[in-house]
Amino acid sequence: MKIKKLEIIDFGKFSDTTLNSLDQGMVVIYGKNEAGKTTLFNLINSLIFGFSPAKSENHPYSSWKNERIEFKSVITTDEGEEVHLYRRLLSSPKGQMTMDDNLIELKNAPLPFANHISWEIYNKIYSLRVEDLVEIQGKAWDEVQDKLLANFGNINIRNTKDVIKEINEEANTIHRHSGRGKTLVKEIETEIQGLKKEKQEALATQSRLKNYDQRLAVTKSKIEEKTEEKIILKVQLKRAKQLTPIKAMISEVEELRRQQIKNPLLESLSHNVGEKLQELEEQQQNLQKAIERKKDAISEKQEKIHDFTTEENLILSKKDQVEEEYKRHLKLENLRAENQQLQQETLRIEDRLKQESRDLFTKDITEDIEGETPQRIKGLNIPELGLMITAQQKAKEGLREVEGLLHYQHQQKKEVKTSNAYIVAGIVGFLLMVLGLVLNLTPLQVLGGIAIIYGVTDWMNGHRIKKQLMEEVRGSNKEKDLLQRKQQLTVELEEKQKEIFKKFEAIPIPKLVLENLQELFLTNLIKVKDLIYQLEDKKRSLKDKQQQEDVVSKEITQFLEQFNNKDMEAGQQFLYLKRMIPLFENKKVINQTLKEDLAELERGLKELQDTLQDSVSTSEVLMEKLKALGGGSKEVGLRTLKENQHLQGKIYLMEEQLNKIPDLDSLTKEINSYPQEEAWIFSDLEIERAEEKVEEIEGNLQNLKDEKKELEIIIQQLLKSVTLDEIESRILLLQTELVKAFEKRDALMLLAEVMGRAEELFREENQPDVLKNASRYLDLITGGKYTTIYLEESQEGTTILLKEKYNPIPRRVTETFSKGTLHQLYLSLRLSLIDHLDGKGENLPISFDELLINWDEERLDYNLQLLKEISKKRQIFMFTCHDWMARKIEDAFGVQRIQLD
Amino acid sequence: MLKFIHIGDVHLDTTFYSRESAIREKLRGSLRMAFLEVIEACILEKVDALLIAGDLFDNHQLSFQTEELLIKSFNRLNEHNIKVFYATGNHDPGEIRSRVGAIRWPDNVMVFANDEICDVDVSNLQGEIIGKIISVGHKTNRESRNLVQEFPVKRGDIPHVGLVHAMVTNASDVEKHDRYLPCTKEDLLEKGYDFWALGHIHQYQEIGEATNIYYSGNLQGRHPRETGEKGGLLVTIEENGLTKVEFKNFAKVIWSTLSVDQLEEMTSYNQMKDYLVDLATNHLEGGYAPSRMEGILRVELKGRCPLREELHEEENIRQLEEDLKYHFNLLSVEVKTEELLPLQNVEDYRDGDNVLAKILAFLEEVQEVVEEGQVKGEVRGEWEENPLLERLLKLPFANKGMKTNAEKLQYISKLLKGLPEQAVHRMVVEDQ
């Protein structure tokens, strides 16, 4: 764009000033200092970008007269369009622009075609002063770079390098690789280190704690051990104190015993042997006297004793026999009387038997009672005979019956009748038996019995026969049969009779009687038989008694013959004896008493004599012993004895005392049971030592208890110390913090790196054009001396290299370069940057303030060549206060200066 | 019937992530309380055993006091005839120099401290066998073998319980992934056990559905990422094989994290405070009841915020923390503002022929390349031809943790967050 016309109504010192014919590439503004060159430059600025600040009262170029800014301008764009601009600043800015008959309200905004550049960039880049060239190196260059890279739009973006620097600084406060300075990481790490150290300490504390705990356990067990030891020792001491006196006494007793003379003689001597000897002598005298007295008494008694004769002694000795024999004598008298009576009875029975047998037998059987006949009679079996008689009678009756039948046979009719006599016989028998039982007479009983049997059997036979006969009468009435039967019965009867005869063989009984034996016969026979028995009994009894009488009589006679009074009758003799016996016995008793007294006396005498004998022998033994003890001297013996006895007394006393101690045996046993190594307890010295040891143990115990307390306190304190997990927690937190710090720092680094890279790339994308253009400009203004500009990026920053025309190696730009070259380089770069900044946008005007005044002629010419080229596309305002410079430019560009007043 | 409590990852005597030492003290006490409460629960519930699935403590940090606490607690269980089965983990391995082996455990404690698989019978007072515990420990802190595969398959009717500190992963090549006894769900399932008591993961969970494979989680949250209720499992295996699992909270202090963005409208402190109170009210009511337990709330502020500068001031952050703490009667509140962004809109500066636009373009480019590389899982790629990224990879980072380029790329990606905003913030001169 080009500013064609400027109509300044109010701007700083300018009022109502119009600058025409500006429509050219180079505008030279000439004026002395303070003529308004800078004001004009600022006006151009405000024209393009508006007012800043946007209030007239604050604006440095408020009109001096009217406190306001107001101007009008005509501008042509690069496209050739004409723009009319009006800007005014009062309390608020106003801006209007007319283009293609369009009115555009700008207010305070930049011109639309200048939007690609900010006010600040324009201000710094598009206006070049001579001072810029002076400060060309260092900061100025960076600034150029920054502006180039950053201020490339309409946004407020900070200097990348500044931001990166800031980031780096921030990152450095967190962490620095060099490790220098104070950083957050370092702080945390230091703290972690501290905590790790603390952790080590805590670990050590733990092991100390364990150690102390173990020590505590050891101490506790030591305390127990020592307490136990103390108790044992105390118990032992107590025991020792109890046992020691006993032990001492026992020992003393033993010692005394050792001192005693071990002579068996001593043991056999009593302590008072002297007195005893004397006593013995006295005793012996007394005994002698007593003996005499006893002997007198004995003779006295002996005289009083009765002397028994042989006869008297015999009587006394047979005393009991006399009494006995006397009783037998009385019995014998009785026996004699009995025998006489018995004899009479025998004679009476004999008479009766004679009488009975006279009726029954044919001869007197009493003549020889022990002869055959009486014996046979005795041997007869009465019941058997009874049966036989019955059988005989039955047979007879049977026969009679048969004969009757036969008779009936003959008479055709016969009556059978049974006899009632049988029943009568039975009843009589029964009565007899009863009578016999009442009277207790055996014969009667037997007789009764027989009668019953006879009666009953015959009555029953009668019935049976009657029955038979009736049957026979009915069944066999044949005569033949009856005859046969008669014969049979006859035989039977004969047999029966034979039997009876046989039985009475040698018995003188008439045959007729035998053939018709009746029951009455049997009764008589029984009577006889009984009498025979009685007679035999009596005779036998008499005989026995007589024999008895003879024996007893003989014995009594024999007995009495022993004594003197033989002529006396037995009875009298017995009476005499009986009278004498008590007399003798009385004497005997008196004698006995006397003898007993005598024996007593004699025993007493004997005792006295024995005692005397003992006493004497005792005296002798004692004397012997004393003499033996005293080496032949009784006195020396006595003395020795006394001394020993004294010892014995002592021993006795001590033993007495010992015996008073309860449970001495077990104590003694205990004392003796102490083994040699423990026997110290009976030594005072050792007891003392033991007591000291107890004290020592107590001391030890106290120490141990103190130690225990101390350990417990230490443990308590250690337990209070910071725990490992607490430290670990803190470490963990710090480590988390550390990681956070690392991450923050690394993020910053990352950002810085990305920013740096972005900036670099941005520059790479833009720089080549700038450098290429700048190289061209430099080539031009150095007259081809320097052909190319290079940039070298290094850690220190950006370094510019210049290539000379004939030197293949570029040279690093340093201060050694000539000032002119540096100015040329700067100008080339600056102009190239301006070109780049405008890029595809409008080429904005640039201002040079006395820029070229220090340049030599050649360089100035080269430079003006360049400006000529530039001014073709861009309007250049050249401010100078030098006339020659103004003229030179006027000449070179063919323009006229604008003179400021 | 077999009844036991399963806990794990107690981490006694280890770190607590809290700025305030009083809170750390509180948490330390709370963890011990939680452990003691486990012991009380064992007694109260009359369990047969306590199963500890590793990481009971940290090998290097077990204190004298805690050792005593453990011995005392286990002795107390012994008095009640309760057995303790303790399989070591990577933090408390059984190797020679470890603490596990040096402790004289009470008779009722069975420690599985090495890599030998053991099965132990659990008997009741009558001497009947009521269950079997099959376990293996970590011998070293680098147990990378899949030892679970070697476990015996269940035989018979007696309940079988597996106890192990392990990392359950779904990948096929498990051993390549982890050095914490890796195994798969299938490895566990095919043993046919009634219950698997696992440790290592600090969050209570069942692996899969109705598998009876459980992580008990830890007893007490130790940092803001361990949020919500923490505790152990009360497990009852009936004779018929029916297994009842009940989670029991033992934690006394609950961590909670609230993430807040959309703060563009915040122009005053009070406005900000009221907004946060509203959000936290909803969050806390939904999360847990602070009246029952003590809570630690972490508020993470993110995004563009007019108060960003103010909220980077330590003093203001503390004020906000205190206000929230008293409003909700919490143990502690931590407000994080690092991720707050300046108000300028990056997008406004992306276009233009200037350095800032160039910077933003670069940051975007780097982000894209890094992300692309990460997605592809490749270390090589376009970045090799990207000179900027190449330069960035060579940057002397203060954090020396990254060795490989892949790690560095990941780190750069992390660092890039918020950098465009920072660039804008730093480069742009704000209109006054």
From TrEMBL, chain A:
SUPFAM superfamilies: P-loop containing nucleoside triphosphate hydrolases (SSF52540). Gene3D superfamilies: P-loop containing nucleotide triphosphate hydrolases. Residues 185-359, 466-499, 591-618, 687-744 form a coiled coil. It holds the Pfam family AAA_27. The chain crosses the membrane at residues 421-438. The keyword Transcription does not apply. InterPro entries: P-loop_NTPase, YhaN_AAA. Residues 1-205 form the YhaN AAA domain. Keywords: Coiled coil, Membrane, Transmembrane, Transmembrane helix. This is Uncharacterized protein YhaN.
UniProtKB/TrEMBL annotation, chain B:
The keyword Hydrolase applies. Residues 2-204 form the Calcineurin-like phosphoesterase domain. One of its GO terms (molecular function) is exonuclease activity. It comes from Alkaliphilus hydrothermalis. Keywords: Exonuclease, Hydrolase, Nuclease. This is DNA repair exonuclease SbcCD nuclease subunit. Pfam families: Metallophos. The keyword Hydrolase applies. It comes from the Bacteria.
